Amino acid sequence: MIKIADRISRLGTETAFAVSAEAAAFAAQGHKVYPFHLGDMNLPTPANVVEASFKAIKEGKTGYCPNVGIPQLRAVLAEDINASHGTRYAMENVAIQPGGKPTITKFIMALMNPGDEVLYPNPGYPIYESQIEFHGGKAVPYRYVEGTDNFAFDMAGLEKSITPRTRLLVLNDLQNPMGAECSPAELEKVAELVLRHDLYVLCDEAYFDIRYEGKSRSLASLPGMAERCVILYTFSKKFAMTGWRLGATIGPKEIIDVVAKLNVNDESCPNHFIQYGAIEGLTGDQSEVKQILATLKERRDTAVDILNSIEGVRCFRPNATFYLFPNVTGLMQKKGLTHYDEFRKAMLTETGVSACTRLHFGRALPGEKDFYIRLAYSGINVGEIKEGLAKFKAWAES
Q: CB under 8 Å to 336, separation ≥6 — which residues?
């Protein structure tokens, strides 16, 4: 038998894809499925981005490019981040990546030694825990709790989790799966903890620009934080470019130099011609970008209104991301269901609504009593949201 390397046993996965496979199998049997499970987008990439990429192909931009990306995109992205964050990044602070995930891995590889402790959100994007443990670190979860209008940072729990071995903090503000965001006071407290305990921070800002009300804030904008933060930027969400696989790592030059070396070893360089489309996205006409946001907002409001009309369900209306994280504790009790998988599978087979549960975003933490599901509305039209959630409501109230 083939002997697989021991470290592979520490590698996790993105379990939403397993739910997707299950939903596809159910649909193949002739059933109607309402795909709330996967955070992909069914909206077109803006036409000017597509056209600029095709133009680059025709101009021969199909070979290797610098391993950190073309200088034109790095400079434009630095300017864009400076405008929104109040920072002073230059081209040397930017390394272009083939998507958002590489920044997670390279941040950990650059700054974490085996045995170091890394704080990460739970519920949270499962790749954080996977990469921490795969590279020999100790993944230490922190949690969110239900507040008045959204989920709130468990600041006391976070502070108690810091030990002399703590090296890194993963901060996914505008969070997947909960849609939670830090208040200004919470960001100030996080900054104080970072400085006091000599931590470095991964600021996962994949949803920074997917915002319907208010203004997004970044930890990197606070005094002393740009020197300690690495920003994960992705073109996937704002420009509906999930399959294009383009993102960036932004941070102190000393860290970006290490990331550049990792780029050489991992993928040589990012896709060449796509970067010209990204430049157009950042600098060109924004009308289609605004339409993407308007469409997502309509979907959010439609879904939240229906969910909050269902007995036993309560759902916040987050100002950012394209996820909802409704509490379904009362509904599960009414249905006599005590396990997440029972509820999820019953929901799929009885209504066609396919969704992830809290357990797809990390192991349950001690003391958890309530039950949650995650609905992504980025890949489902308003008509299907209404139709699917109407069936869900009818089943819930039957």
A: none
